[in-house]
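Question: Hello, beginner here. Any chance you could explain the protein record under this note? Any guidance would be welcome.
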Amino acid sequence: MRKKIINSSSPLVKRIMQANTLHKELCASGVRPHSSTDDVSGDKCWVTELFNEMFWASTHAEEGRAIRGSICICAPSETRSARQLNASVPVTSRALIQLFVAAPHSALGVHVVHGRLVVWGFIDVVPMGSLRMLITGNATIVVIEEKAAIAIFEQGELFLPEAADKFSFTMHVANALTHHRAFEARLTFAARLQLVVTAMHRQCHGGALVIIPSTQESPIPTDIKFAYQFSALGIDNIQSVISEWETASQNYDPYSQHVNNAAFSQTKWWETINQSYVDQVSKLLRNAGELSNIDGAVVMDEDLRLLGFGAKLAGDLDEVKIIKIDALTKSIDEVHISSLGGTRHQSAARFVSKNLESMVFVSSQDGRLSLFVGVLKEEKVAVIHRLEHFLWDA
Protein backbone atom coordinates (compact mmCIF):
# COMPACT_ATOMS: atom_id res chain seq x y z
CA MET A 1 0.00 0.00 0.00
CA ARG A 2 1.38 3.40 -1.01
CA LYS A 3 2.29 5.97 1.60
CA LYS A 4 -0.15 8.84 2.22
CA ILE A 5 1.61 12.12 1.51
CA ILE A 6 -0.85 14.11 3.60
CA ASN A 7 -3.53 13.15 6.11
CA SER A 8 -6.85 14.75 7.00
CA SER A 9 -5.28 16.95 9.69
CA SER A 10 -2.81 18.57 7.26
CA PRO A 11 -2.81 22.40 7.05
CA LEU A 12 -3.34 21.93 3.30
CA VAL A 13 -6.62 20.10 3.91
CA LYS A 14 -7.69 22.74 6.42
CA ARG A 15 -7.03 25.50 3.85
CA ILE A 16 -9.15 23.66 1.27
CA MET A 17 -11.95 23.16 3.78
CA GLN A 18 -11.95 26.90 4.49
CA ALA A 19 -12.05 27.69 0.77
CA ASN A 20 -14.79 27.27 -1.82
CA THR A 21 -16.50 30.20 -0.10
CA LEU A 22 -18.66 31.12 -3.08
CA HIS A 23 -20.26 27.65 -3.20
CA LYS A 24 -20.92 27.74 0.54
CA GLU A 25 -22.48 31.20 0.37
CA LEU A 26 -24.72 30.24 -2.55
CA CYS A 27 -25.88 27.11 -0.72
CA ALA A 28 -26.54 28.99 2.51
CA SER A 29 -28.58 31.64 0.72
CA GLY A 30 -30.60 29.05 -1.19
CA VAL A 31 -29.41 30.29 -4.59
CA ARG A 32 -28.07 26.86 -5.47
CA PRO A 33 -28.91 23.45 -4.00
CA HIS A 34 -26.50 21.15 -2.24
CA SER A 35 -24.59 19.01 -4.77
CA SER A 36 -21.91 16.34 -5.04
CA THR A 37 -19.38 19.20 -5.18
CA ASP A 38 -20.09 19.96 -1.55
CA ASP A 39 -19.71 16.26 -0.68
CA VAL A 40 -16.08 16.41 -1.84
CA SER A 41 -14.88 19.90 -0.87
CA GLY A 42 -16.64 19.69 2.50
CA ASP A 43 -15.21 16.32 3.51
CA LYS A 44 -11.65 15.98 4.85
CA CYS A 45 -11.36 12.33 3.82
CA TRP A 46 -12.37 12.94 0.19
CA VAL A 47 -10.04 15.94 -0.10
CA THR A 48 -7.17 13.93 1.38
CA GLU A 49 -7.74 10.96 -0.93
CA LEU A 50 -8.01 13.18 -4.00
CA PHE A 51 -4.81 15.05 -3.19
CA ASN A 52 -2.83 11.86 -2.57
CA GLU A 53 -3.90 10.35 -5.90
CA MET A 54 -2.99 13.61 -7.66
CA PHE A 55 0.41 13.61 -5.97
CA TRP A 56 1.29 10.09 -7.10
CA ALA A 57 0.14 10.90 -10.63
CA SER A 58 2.48 13.93 -10.61
CA THR A 59 5.54 11.74 -9.93
CA HIS A 60 5.11 9.68 -13.11
CA ALA A 61 5.99 10.21 -16.75
CA GLU A 62 4.07 8.73 -19.67
CA GLU A 63 6.18 7.72 -22.68
CA GLY A 64 8.91 10.05 -21.46
CA ARG A 65 6.55 13.02 -21.04
CA ALA A 66 6.07 14.74 -17.70
CA ILE A 67 2.50 14.59 -16.45
CA ARG A 68 0.59 17.89 -16.44
CA GLY A 69 -3.12 18.31 -15.85
CA SER A 70 -5.86 19.52 -13.54
CA ILE A 71 -9.03 18.37 -11.84
CA CYS A 72 -12.06 20.47 -10.99
CA ILE A 73 -14.36 19.54 -8.12
CA CYS A 74 -17.82 20.01 -9.60
CA ALA A 75 -20.90 18.13 -10.74
CA PRO A 76 -21.83 17.75 -14.45
CA SER A 77 -24.82 20.07 -13.92
CA GLU A 78 -22.57 22.92 -12.75
CA THR A 79 -20.69 23.53 -15.98
CA ARG A 80 -22.05 24.77 -19.30
CA SER A 81 -19.38 23.16 -21.45
CA ALA A 82 -18.15 19.63 -20.77
CA ARG A 83 -17.79 16.23 -22.38
CA GLN A 84 -19.34 13.70 -20.03
CA LEU A 85 -18.12 10.11 -20.15
CA ASN A 86 -20.61 7.31 -20.68
CA ALA A 87 -19.34 5.66 -17.49
CA SER A 88 -17.55 7.45 -14.65
CA VAL A 89 -13.97 6.38 -13.88
CA PRO A 90 -12.84 5.75 -10.27
CA VAL A 91 -10.15 8.21 -9.18
CA THR A 92 -6.77 6.46 -9.08
CA SER A 93 -3.36 7.85 -9.96
CA ARG A 94 -3.18 5.50 -12.97
CA ALA A 95 -6.55 6.64 -14.32
CA LEU A 96 -5.63 10.30 -13.80
CA ILE A 97 -2.36 9.84 -15.72
CA GLN A 98 -4.16 8.30 -18.71
CA LEU A 99 -6.86 10.97 -18.78
CA PHE A 100 -4.37 13.83 -18.39
CA VAL A 101 -2.39 12.51 -21.37
CA ALA A 102 -5.59 12.16 -23.40
CA ALA A 103 -6.74 15.74 -22.78
CA PRO A 104 -3.93 17.83 -21.22
CA HIS A 105 -5.71 21.16 -21.70
CA SER A 106 -9.09 20.20 -20.21
CA ALA A 107 -9.82 19.86 -16.50
CA LEU A 108 -11.16 16.53 -15.29
CA GLY A 109 -14.51 16.83 -13.54
CA VAL A 110 -14.51 15.02 -10.18
CA HIS A 111 -17.34 14.37 -7.73
CA VAL A 112 -18.67 11.57 -5.48
CA VAL A 113 -21.04 8.87 -6.72
CA HIS A 114 -22.25 6.02 -4.52
CA GLY A 115 -19.62 6.75 -1.91
CA ARG A 116 -16.69 6.84 -4.34
CA LEU A 117 -14.58 9.56 -5.95
CA VAL A 118 -14.97 9.43 -9.73
CA VAL A 119 -13.99 11.34 -12.86
CA TRP A 120 -17.17 12.04 -14.79
CA GLY A 121 -15.73 13.84 -17.85
CA PHE A 122 -13.65 16.61 -19.40
CA ILE A 123 -14.46 20.26 -18.59
CA ASP A 124 -13.88 22.95 -21.20
CA VAL A 125 -15.30 25.91 -19.24
CA VAL A 126 -14.57 25.73 -15.51
CA PRO A 127 -17.48 26.85 -13.29
CA MET A 128 -17.09 30.13 -11.42
CA GLY A 129 -15.89 29.72 -7.85
CA SER A 130 -14.85 26.10 -8.27
CA LEU A 131 -11.93 24.40 -6.52
CA ARG A 132 -9.20 22.91 -8.67
CA MET A 133 -5.99 20.96 -8.19
CA LEU A 134 -3.25 21.32 -10.82
CA ILE A 135 -0.14 19.27 -11.46
CA THR A 136 2.43 21.92 -12.38
CA GLY A 137 5.64 19.93 -12.00
CA ASN A 138 7.16 16.77 -10.60
CA ALA A 139 5.61 16.16 -7.15
CA THR A 140 4.08 19.63 -7.30
CA ILE A 141 0.38 20.33 -6.78
CA VAL A 142 -1.29 23.75 -6.78
CA VAL A 143 -4.76 24.19 -5.28
CA ILE A 144 -6.84 26.95 -6.88
CA GLU A 145 -9.95 28.74 -5.69
CA GLU A 146 -11.53 30.96 -8.34
CA LYS A 147 -8.45 32.80 -9.72
CA ALA A 148 -5.87 32.48 -6.96
CA ALA A 149 -3.58 29.74 -5.68
CA ILE A 150 -4.51 29.04 -2.06
CA ALA A 151 -2.07 26.18 -1.42
CA ILE A 152 1.09 24.94 -3.11
CA PHE A 153 2.72 21.60 -2.34
CA GLU A 154 6.13 21.50 -3.98
CA GLN A 155 8.27 18.38 -3.53
CA GLY A 156 7.50 17.99 0.15
CA GLU A 157 7.20 21.69 1.04
CA LEU A 158 3.81 23.28 1.71
CA PHE A 159 3.12 26.97 1.02
CA LEU A 160 -0.09 28.77 1.91
CA PRO A 161 0.30 32.10 0.09
CA GLU A 162 -1.81 35.17 0.72
CA ALA A 163 -2.09 35.74 -3.01
CA ALA A 164 -0.59 33.93 -5.99
CA ASP A 165 -2.32 34.93 -9.20
CA LYS A 166 -1.77 36.76 -12.46
CA PHE A 167 -2.20 40.19 -10.88
CA SER A 168 0.41 39.38 -8.23
CA PHE A 169 2.81 38.38 -11.03
CA THR A 170 2.15 41.69 -12.77
CA MET A 171 2.86 43.58 -9.54
CA HIS A 172 6.17 41.69 -9.05
CA VAL A 173 7.29 42.68 -12.55
CA ALA A 174 6.05 46.28 -12.32
CA ASN A 175 7.93 46.80 -9.05
CA ALA A 176 11.09 45.26 -10.55
CA LEU A 177 11.13 47.64 -13.52
CA THR A 178 13.31 50.74 -13.36
CA HIS A 179 11.34 53.60 -11.86
CA HIS A 180 11.90 56.23 -14.54
CA ARG A 181 8.34 55.54 -15.75
CA ALA A 182 5.07 56.13 -13.93
CA PHE A 183 3.77 53.10 -12.05
CA GLU A 184 0.64 52.89 -14.23
CA ALA A 185 2.81 52.62 -17.35
CA ARG A 186 4.96 49.94 -15.69
CA LEU A 187 1.85 48.00 -14.69
CA THR A 188 0.52 48.08 -18.27
CA PHE A 189 3.90 46.96 -19.61
CA ALA A 190 4.10 44.14 -17.03
CA ALA A 191 0.62 42.89 -17.92
CA ARG A 192 1.56 42.70 -21.60
CA LEU A 193 4.91 41.12 -20.80
CA GLN A 194 3.06 38.43 -18.88
CA LEU A 195 1.67 37.10 -22.19
CA VAL A 196 5.19 36.75 -23.63
CA VAL A 197 6.49 35.01 -20.50
CA THR A 198 3.50 32.65 -20.32
CA ALA A 199 3.93 31.61 -23.96
CA MET A 200 7.62 30.91 -23.34
CA HIS A 201 6.94 29.00 -20.15
CA ARG A 202 4.23 26.83 -21.72
CA GLN A 203 6.68 25.50 -24.32
CA CYS A 204 8.15 23.30 -21.53
CA HIS A 205 11.43 23.54 -23.46
CA GLY A 206 13.13 26.02 -21.19
CA GLY A 207 14.02 29.47 -22.43
CA ALA A 208 15.00 33.03 -21.62
CA LEU A 209 13.45 36.44 -22.27
CA VAL A 210 15.73 39.48 -22.02
CA ILE A 211 14.26 42.96 -21.49
CA ILE A 212 16.66 45.85 -22.05
CA PRO A 213 16.15 49.63 -21.73
CA SER A 214 14.45 51.40 -24.64
CA THR A 215 16.58 51.16 -27.77
CA GLN A 216 15.29 54.63 -28.66
CA GLU A 217 17.39 55.94 -25.78
CA SER A 218 20.20 53.38 -25.28
CA PRO A 219 22.19 51.08 -27.60
CA ILE A 220 21.77 47.30 -27.49
CA PRO A 221 24.32 45.85 -25.01
CA THR A 222 27.32 44.42 -26.84
CA ASP A 223 27.25 41.22 -24.79
CA ILE A 224 24.05 40.05 -26.55
CA LYS A 225 25.07 37.85 -29.49
CA PHE A 226 22.07 37.33 -31.79
CA ALA A 227 21.49 34.31 -33.97
CA TYR A 228 18.54 36.08 -35.59
CA GLN A 229 17.63 39.77 -35.65
CA PHE A 230 14.55 41.50 -37.04
CA SER A 231 14.41 44.29 -39.60
CA ALA A 232 13.22 47.76 -38.59
CA LEU A 233 9.64 46.85 -39.55
CA GLY A 234 9.84 43.56 -37.65
CA ILE A 235 11.25 45.27 -34.55
CA ASP A 236 8.40 47.79 -34.41
CA ASN A 237 5.60 45.35 -35.31
CA ILE A 238 4.11 45.03 -31.82
CA GLN A 239 4.70 48.65 -30.84
CA SER A 240 3.12 49.98 -34.04
CA VAL A 241 -0.11 48.07 -33.40
CA ILE A 242 -0.16 49.30 -29.78
CA SER A 243 0.41 52.89 -30.95
CA GLU A 244 -2.41 52.56 -33.49
CA TRP A 245 -4.67 51.19 -30.74
CA GLU A 246 -3.78 54.03 -28.33
CA THR A 247 -4.46 56.64 -31.04
CA ALA A 248 -7.84 55.10 -31.82
CA SER A 249 -8.69 55.10 -28.08
CA GLN A 250 -7.78 58.77 -27.72
CA ASN A 251 -9.84 59.75 -30.77
CA TYR A 252 -12.92 57.79 -29.76
CA ASP A 253 -15.62 60.00 -28.26
CA PRO A 254 -18.78 58.16 -27.15
CA TYR A 255 -20.55 61.52 -26.67
CA SER A 256 -19.87 62.91 -30.11
CA GLN A 257 -23.47 62.13 -31.13
CA HIS A 258 -26.80 62.53 -29.41
CA VAL A 259 -27.94 59.63 -27.28
CA ASN A 260 -29.93 57.72 -29.85
CA ASN A 261 -29.70 54.48 -31.81
CA ALA A 262 -26.78 55.83 -33.85
CA ALA A 263 -24.81 56.57 -30.68
CA PHE A 264 -25.61 53.13 -29.32
CA SER A 265 -24.38 51.57 -32.56
CA GLN A 266 -21.21 53.66 -32.35
CA THR A 267 -20.52 52.34 -28.85
CA LYS A 268 -20.99 48.77 -29.98
CA TRP A 269 -18.77 49.44 -32.98
CA TRP A 270 -15.98 50.71 -30.70
CA GLU A 271 -16.28 47.68 -28.40
CA THR A 272 -15.75 45.44 -31.43
CA ILE A 273 -12.77 47.47 -32.67
CA ASN A 274 -11.21 47.64 -29.20
CA GLN A 275 -11.52 43.87 -28.74
CA SER A 276 -9.91 43.29 -32.14
CA TYR A 277 -6.88 45.32 -30.97
CA VAL A 278 -6.75 43.34 -27.70
CA ASP A 279 -6.77 40.07 -29.64
CA GLN A 280 -4.18 41.25 -32.16
CA VAL A 281 -1.72 42.53 -29.55
CA SER A 282 -2.18 39.41 -27.42
CA LYS A 283 -1.43 37.18 -30.41
CA LEU A 284 1.70 39.16 -31.31
CA LEU A 285 2.99 38.96 -27.73
CA ARG A 286 2.37 35.22 -27.49
CA ASN A 287 4.08 34.70 -30.84
CA ALA A 288 7.12 36.54 -29.47
CA GLY A 289 7.25 34.21 -26.46
CA GLU A 290 7.12 31.14 -28.69
CA LEU A 291 10.40 32.20 -30.35
CA SER A 292 12.09 30.85 -27.21
CA ASN A 293 11.47 27.33 -28.49
CA ILE A 294 14.95 27.29 -29.99
CA ASP A 295 18.15 27.64 -27.96
CA GLY A 296 19.03 31.18 -27.03
CA ALA A 297 17.10 34.12 -25.59
CA VAL A 298 14.33 36.26 -27.01
CA VAL A 299 15.31 39.94 -26.69
CA MET A 300 12.86 42.85 -26.36
CA ASP A 301 13.15 46.38 -25.03
CA GLU A 302 10.96 48.28 -22.57
CA ASP A 303 8.87 49.62 -25.47
CA LEU A 304 8.04 46.02 -26.50
CA ARG A 305 10.24 46.24 -29.58
CA LEU A 306 11.15 42.68 -30.59
CA LEU A 307 14.86 42.85 -31.42
CA GLY A 308 15.75 39.21 -32.10
CA PHE A 309 15.96 35.68 -30.78
CA GLY A 310 18.31 32.71 -30.43
CA ALA A 311 20.61 35.14 -28.58
CA LYS A 312 23.53 34.17 -26.37
CA LEU A 313 24.37 36.28 -23.33
CA ALA A 314 28.10 36.80 -23.10
CA GLY A 315 29.73 37.48 -19.77
CA ASP A 316 32.56 36.06 -17.71
CA LEU A 317 32.04 37.68 -14.31
CA ASP A 318 32.42 35.13 -11.53
CA GLU A 319 32.07 37.53 -8.60
CA VAL A 320 28.38 38.32 -8.95
CA LYS A 321 26.56 39.47 -5.82
CA ILE A 322 23.19 37.75 -5.76
CA ILE A 323 20.19 37.93 -3.47
CA LYS A 324 17.47 35.31 -3.90
CA ILE A 325 13.86 36.27 -3.19
CA ASP A 326 11.11 33.69 -2.76
CA ALA A 327 7.98 35.07 -4.45
CA LEU A 328 5.76 32.94 -2.20
CA THR A 329 7.32 33.33 1.23
CA LYS A 330 9.07 36.69 0.64
CA SER A 331 12.23 35.23 2.24
CA ILE A 332 15.55 36.77 1.12
CA ASP A 333 18.95 35.04 1.08
CA GLU A 334 22.38 35.84 -0.30
CA VAL A 335 23.53 33.01 -2.57
CA HIS A 336 26.47 32.08 -4.78
CA ILE A 337 25.99 32.02 -8.54
CA SER A 338 26.73 28.28 -8.64
CA SER A 339 23.56 27.59 -6.62
CA LEU A 340 21.25 29.16 -9.20
CA GLY A 341 21.08 26.24 -11.59
CA GLY A 342 22.33 25.61 -15.11
CA THR A 343 23.79 27.70 -17.90
CA ARG A 344 20.69 29.83 -18.54
CA HIS A 345 20.42 30.94 -14.92
CA GLN A 346 24.11 31.71 -14.51
CA SER A 347 24.30 33.52 -17.84
CA ALA A 348 21.27 35.61 -16.87
CA ALA A 349 22.88 36.55 -13.54
CA ARG A 350 26.14 37.58 -15.21
CA PHE A 351 24.35 39.58 -17.91
CA VAL A 352 22.18 41.52 -15.44
CA SER A 353 25.21 42.13 -13.23
CA LYS A 354 26.82 44.01 -16.13
CA ASN A 355 23.53 45.57 -17.30
CA LEU A 356 21.71 46.50 -14.11
CA GLU A 357 18.82 48.24 -15.89
CA SER A 358 17.95 45.06 -17.79
CA MET A 359 15.95 42.04 -16.63
CA VAL A 360 15.87 38.40 -17.69
CA PHE A 361 13.13 35.80 -17.27
CA VAL A 362 14.42 32.23 -17.23
CA SER A 363 12.12 29.24 -17.68
CA SER A 364 13.39 25.73 -16.92
CA GLN A 365 12.36 22.43 -18.43
CA ASP A 366 11.38 21.26 -14.95
CA GLY A 367 8.75 24.02 -14.73
CA ARG A 368 10.60 26.66 -12.70
CA LEU A 369 10.35 30.35 -13.62
CA SER A 370 12.70 33.03 -12.27
CA LEU A 371 13.21 36.74 -12.85
CA PHE A 372 16.70 38.32 -12.69
CA VAL A 373 16.76 42.07 -12.05
CA GLY A 374 19.44 44.57 -11.12
CA VAL A 375 19.54 46.31 -7.75
CA LEU A 376 21.06 49.62 -8.82
CA LYS A 377 21.92 51.10 -5.41
CA GLU A 378 23.70 47.97 -4.19
CA GLU A 379 25.05 46.81 -7.58
CA LYS A 380 23.62 43.36 -6.96
CA VAL A 381 21.40 40.96 -8.88
CA ALA A 382 18.07 39.96 -7.35
CA VAL A 383 16.59 36.62 -8.40
CA ILE A 384 12.86 36.28 -7.81
CA HIS A 385 12.03 32.58 -7.98
CA ARG A 386 8.89 30.40 -7.78
CA LEU A 387 7.11 32.73 -10.23
CA GLU A 388 5.71 29.70 -12.07
CA HIS A 389 3.03 29.47 -9.37
CA PHE A 390 1.61 32.82 -10.46
CA LEU A 391 0.97 31.83 -14.09
CA TRP A 392 -1.15 28.71 -13.71
CA ASP A 393 -4.15 30.32 -15.49
CA ALA A 394 -2.54 32.94 -17.67
Summary: The longest helix spans residues 261-290.
